[in-house]
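Annotated sample (chain length 388).
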Amino acid sequence: MLLKISKQMDRLGTESAFEVLARAQELSKQGRDIINLGIGQPDFKTPQHIVEAGRKALKDGHHGYTPANGIPELREAVSFDLKRRYDVTVDSNHIVVVPGGKPTMFFSLLMFGGSKSEIIYPSPGFPIYRSLINFTGSKAVPVSIKEENNFSFSADDILEKINPKTRLIIINSPANPTGGITSKLELDKFVKEIIKYPGIAVLSDEIYSHMVYGETKHISLIQYPELRDQLIMLDGWSKTYAMTGWRMGYAVWPKKLVPYVTRLCINNHSCVNAATQHAGIAALTGSHDIILEMIEEFRKRRSLIFKELNAVPKISCKMPGGAFYAFPNIKDTGLSSKTAQDLFLNEAGVATISGTSFGASGEGYVRFSYANSIESIIEAIARIRKII
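Output written by the structure step:
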């Protein structure tokens, strides 16, 4: 090959869920009956009032560029939503709307990464964290998210990794792939200590913030005013409103970083699709009845998959606290995570994701998404039970 590609391209990873999805679709084309418990997206349609708002925006002529950081009406709607949910006041000028959750991750890593930087991130965790850390030439410093802690992060485990080269800490709760949620006690402890390091930024990935099923509500780091000057809080529409294909997310940024991230938006994608932004307003300001129904359905599926997985010999599973994932322990089967993933797909016709797709500490686990019907979940685990 004559083209000389930058070496940093070799450091980019991928998201295995899309590879498994492609293989599952290939098998389906061959006539196989495949149940997909791999992909991390709601199996519901976008609520109709949101679709209609997007359609109306197109009919009304919203076809041009918008401000790079998002239209003011949408940013104000986000600010209102944060006030309603967390009783916090957020200046809408500190909110930057982007096409999904990943741009906020990418921009954060571009700002704080580099050959002399260390980035702390959860493992097992969303694979794009490590991929982007490596891409920027930073040193990736994993913090193990442990089953014995119900997959909640430990503030002490994170804090002990800090050194003079640490530039960014990534936190994810509710978490992908484990479904773990972090307690207020741990967050209090973390914030109390991290503010002693004002040169370290914190990226809090809260994309599953609505999907908490226990008695406790989601605690956002935006609720800690003392952390605001260090905090990048990521959330969005994809998971909560079944809008994964619409591609829109947002982050609340420290005031001093807003000009930089806005400049990155201008250089990267110019702006988010105009009609999508108007649909986003309808999502935040319209009725949430359908959303509550969707979350209640996930709650039922969570209980079911917990019960069904624990009934499979040699498999054990913690009750997920949030998101829509279960992360069962398969160590007693004697199978590696990747072998189990391939066996479940090729022999049982069930798509899942190997725990190692989320980091080395995911060995011995497999991620199941319960973003599928109750009937499909029951059938999928029945098939797996037959081949274990």
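Annotation: The chain has a mean pLDDT of 96.
Annotation: The chain has two domains: 7-45+289-387, 49-285.
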